[in-house]
Structures are given as C-alpha cells and as structure tokens.
Amino acid sequence: MFEYLRVKPEPFKVAPDPGSISVNELMGDFGLPISIRTINGLPIQAKQRVYRLLIPSPLLAGFDINPVTWKCPEGDGYVQCKAEPDTNTVNLSVRESPESPDVFFCLELADNNFNGIDLNLLRMSDPATSHFRTDFDEEGRPTLFGSLCRNRIEAERAMRAGLAPGQIRSSLGASRLVFQQLDGFLAFLGHAAVSLEPMTYVSAWIFERRGFAYLRGHKFMDDVHEEFQPGGRLHRALDGSTPFRQPDQWQTVRGRAWAIHDGIVSAIDARWDGLRMIKRVGYQAGVNTFPNVVY
Amino acid sequence: MSQKFRITQAAELESLARLRDFVGQHCQHKGIDSQTCYAVMLAADEACTNIITHGYAGRNPGSIILDLELQSSQVIIRITDFGRPFEPYEPEAPDVSGMLAGRPTGGFGLFIIYKTMDAVDYKTTEGGEHADSHQTPLSKYRGHVEKQAPKDFGNPSGLFLHLSLQAVSQ
Question: What domains can you pick out in chain B, each with its CATH number?
C-alpha cells in the first residue's frame, strides 16, 4: 500500500543537570533547552544577565529604573531577583521605590515536571492608582488574590472601580510587551512553549489575546460563553442575589469574571478549576472564546 | 507565493463542521479544484475526529489548531493539538466484505487520510500529558501533479521532536 514508510526517531533533548554550565555548553547545541534550575546555578552576575531579558526595558525606563543596572538615578536597586541555586523557580519583582510595600511588576517562572516552563505568576499594577485590599480578608489573612478566600467588601469596591477579580490596582496595560519579551526569553533558553493556569476569566481572556491556546478548558470556556447568552443558565443565574450577579454583567468580560469569581458556574455544575493554557513561542493560537467582546 | 489561514476551536465533535467548512471555503475561494478540495476536507475531518475522540478522550477538551497553507502546487494542513498522542500506525484496508451488521465500527479514519493525501506526517513531544503538543501535517498535490517523495515538514511546534512518521499512498 505504501511506497514509502519511515519511522524516524529523533534524539530526545533534555536540559542539562543542575549546576554550573559553561558558555561552550550553552552554545554547543543550539536547540538544547536550558532549565531555570540550570540558570539558577550560574554565578549571580551571570544569571542576572540572563534574567534581565525577562523585564521589558520600556517598563523599567517608564519608572526611571535603568533597564541594564536595575537601579534608579539615586543608585538604589528596585528590582529583586529571587533565583536561588538548586531551585527551579525565578521570581522577579519591581517596586516604585525601595520603601514601597507594593510591587508593581512581578513575574515568576518555574521548570515543570515535563522539561518545560510554567508561568506561575504575572502581576502588573499601576502604582499611581487606588489600592484595594482584595489581597487580604477582613481579618488580615492573605486571600491569594481571591483564590483562597475573599474580602467581599473590598472586592465590591474594586469591581465598582472597574477592576477585575484578583487585582489590587488598575493594570499597567503592558501584557503585550511582557509576552513579547517572554517569547524572546524562552527562545533564548531553547524552549518552544510556556504553560500556565489562568486564575480568573479575565486572565484567560487576556492570555487568549496574547496567543495562548488551551491544554484543558477550551470547551469549558465555549460553554461559559454560550450559557451567558440570553436564555442560558448563567444568564438566568445573574439574578441580582449578590452585588456580583447583576443582570447586565453577562455583556462584559469583567462582569462575567466577577460573577464567576462569585461561584456562578456552579449553575452549570462546573467550577473554575483545572484550566490550563499553552503558548507556543512565536505563534498566536487565535483562540477567541468571547467574540464581539466588551471588556 | 503561499497563503496561510488559521482556525482554533475547542476539541469537541461540534467543532468538526466549523473546521471542515473553514477548509472548504478557503479552498473554493482560492480556486482549488473540487477533487483536491474534497480530499483535503475529508482528511482534515478524519484527522480532527481522531484527535477529538482519542487525544482528548476523558479530559476537559483543550484546543485544536488547524493551519491551512495553499501553495501553487499543493495544499498543506497542519493540525496542532495538546491531547494524548495517538499511535501512528500503518492502517490496514478495512474489511468491507460481508454483512454490514457484523462489521466493527470505526477504523476507517487513518485509512482515509492516507488514501486521500499525498503525504502524512505526525510529530509529537514526549514528556507527559500537560506538556504535549502534537502536529499532524497533511499535504495534497493540486490537480494531477505527479506524486513525489514526502517533503520534510520541518521541526514541530512541540517541545521536543520524538517521532516522525511519513508515508505516501500509492
């Protein structure tokens, strides 16, 4: 039946063992994926050189922070890089000033169990805007951005101020810039993709626009869109029973997100859980589960 | 000069009609002959069905990305998914003899794909279900162009190239 049939096994490339890595090793195999753990094993100056690639220069320059030295004109360092040897995580955080308790940019990457990279956390907030204490409950316990528990009073204030669930301030509006930068960083390391778990409906929507596809949950997102249409079960569940379930909320990404944060998807016997997204370096997946969108 | 088009859908059976129509409409609009157009639609439909029913079986379905490339001499489809890899194998011709009632259902998908397309490839990553990315490129020469050896589709979009299977039907 076949003129030509060939099984062609290719060598399976794995990241080198943690520890030091020479420039020769780095350059020896162009396609070799380098793990975060390996980078963390480099001398501090070397790893900072590598991780400098992760923060968009215009973002730092906009806050008068030198993108090369990570310092302000007065000489203080405002960028913190946590990348300890023998760990598989890097966490970069930037403050407007060393005394400021608020981090306006925070990005955390980690090696995953499958020789790939996960984006564990990306937070960007405009420090010039009002702060809402949605990150702590009424008794001062961390809410983990509303994923563990909620501060309903602050959440309602944040919603009325136009914020999305999980936000403590308005966004910096720099996600396009950050994901372009991240694409370049992953290509530099030899990785072809990054995966993540969207914490909220808004973040899933943003990640779709930044080129992510779904490993799990595409159908769920389609179902959510469908059920928010007039006549759908989620549309009916917007019954005004809480401040987060007002009838007109189906029309906007944020409105839906607050209702979902309030647990409305139980009306379709579902939970906001287990969604997983992936972005292939250089590719836009073109997912759009909320067509004709109003943010 | 080639033209490229892309559609991304949830990997569920309800998406098949949209994927099939996407291929058909672009092929027709760009003047691909009806025989080639039909063959490509059929193969795309079967490949996507395989991915949806096997790759994403029992899980919350993720995305399926269909890239259509129209070249002057051939039509190429690349289907990317993130489900479980399915084992590519040389399909045997299904048994169509005897009574309909006694025959097993299914088993035609790969056979149809290999029969209708000029080159079929399958590339997958290794490393667990969460990191998998698989590409199924299919190509069909337009009109009555003499068939050639399968082209090299290049590196996959997956994290690591694990296995490549190429075949051309007679």
Answer: 3-167 (3.30.565.10)
